From TrEMBL:
Cross-referenced SUPFAM superfamilies: Chromo domain-like
Protein name as catalogued: Heterochromatin protein 1
Superkingdom in the source lineage: Eukaryota
Organism the protein comes from: Dissostichus eleginoides
InterPro entries in UniProt: Chromo-like_dom_sf (IPR016197)
Length: 192
């Protein structure tokens, strides 16, 4: 009897059966096709901004709908969740579900619960953002006195995992005493 062929996940390095397409631990894709990997590398934030600027977002969603239909034709039972920021509140996420299950009351109730759970996952952010206690900053961009206490305006670096950006904030200068940067010049990257 032959042993099952295993391949490591490119994200978490867990060994998975070669026949499956998704990692059993981190749920990342196990595709090893170089053409796919090269294409995925080009889909960055710059690409996304171009799609929004050219008003092609609906075209991408329509392509996803077609992919769901193709998978259905191949015998897969697909549920696709996608989320977008709410137009009224930038801190709130709205989730949508794309599937071709029969529209029964039970299916609708289950999919609605799954959609709400997905919205909660989206609003929580990445694990690093929620649990880190030390934040990296780019530079000190201003100084002021507030109620007799010195404060520095800090330009924060984005999260290294999810690229979440942070607004500039005024922090107590005593947290940055070891830095000798002037307000106009960038200081060394540090942490607060």
């Amino acid at each position: 009897m032959t042993r099952p062929k295993l391949r490591p996940c490119p994200t978490c390095q867990t060994l998975n059966k070669a026949s499956i397409k998704t990692c059993t631990v981190c749920y990342g894709t196990l595709s090893t096709k170089t053409k796919f990997i090269k294409k995925a590398a080009t889909l960055d934030g710059k690409w996304g901004q171009g799609v929004v600027r050219n008003r092609n977002v609906n075209r991408i969603i329509d392509s996803a709908r077609i992919a769901v239909l193709k998978l259905e034709a191949l015998g897969f039972k697909t549920i696709l969740f996608y989320g977008h920021r709410d137009n009224k509140s930038l801190n709130k996420w709205v989730a949508d579900v794309m599937t071709h299950f029969a529209a029964s009351s039970v299916n609708k109730a289950i999919l609605d619960k799954m959609r709400r759970v997905y919205e909660i996952l989206l609003s929580k952010g990445c694990r690093k953002c929620n649990h880190q206690k030390v934040f990296l900053f780019e530079k000190i961009i201003g100084r002021r006195m507030n109620e007799g206490k010195a404060e520095c305006e800090i330009c924060w670096l984005p999260c290294s995992v999810c690229n979440r950006t942070w607004d500039n904030t005024w922090e107590p200068a005593c947290n940055f005493e070891c830095l000798t940067a002037t307000p106009e010049s960038p200081g060394p990257s540090g942490s607060a």
